[in-house]
Amino acid sequence: MTTFKREFKFISKKEMKKRISLNIKKYRLLAGITQEQLAVDIDKSYDFVRRLEFTKGKIGCSTYTLYCIAEVLNTSIENFFK
To answer: Is residue 45 part of a domain?
Structure first.
């Protein structure tokens, strides 16, 4: 069986982080939750949540933190990637 490199067009890591950051903010605002409340709910600092949203992808978070944020915001984790 022959294997070959298939071509895919991926967005950059920087663009993915930016997309996630903007979507976290979007869904937080839709849920009517402040950054402070989100921080308390996911057991992170307010500064962490603020930087996660404000720096638009310059910092990232673990998949577990992303999962927790999605649960608190009552949305699917996949929505952060759209």
So the answer is: yes
Domain that holds residue 39: 13-81
**C-alpha torsion 39→43→44→50, nearest 10:** -10
Within-domain flag for 5: no
Residue 7 domain flag: no
For 6-40, what is each residue's pLDDT tens digit?
999 999 988 999 999 999 999 999 999 999 999 99
pLDDT tens profile 34-74: 999 999 999 999 999 999 998 876 788 899 999 999 999 99
Element (H, E) at 32: none
* Total number of domains in the chain: 1
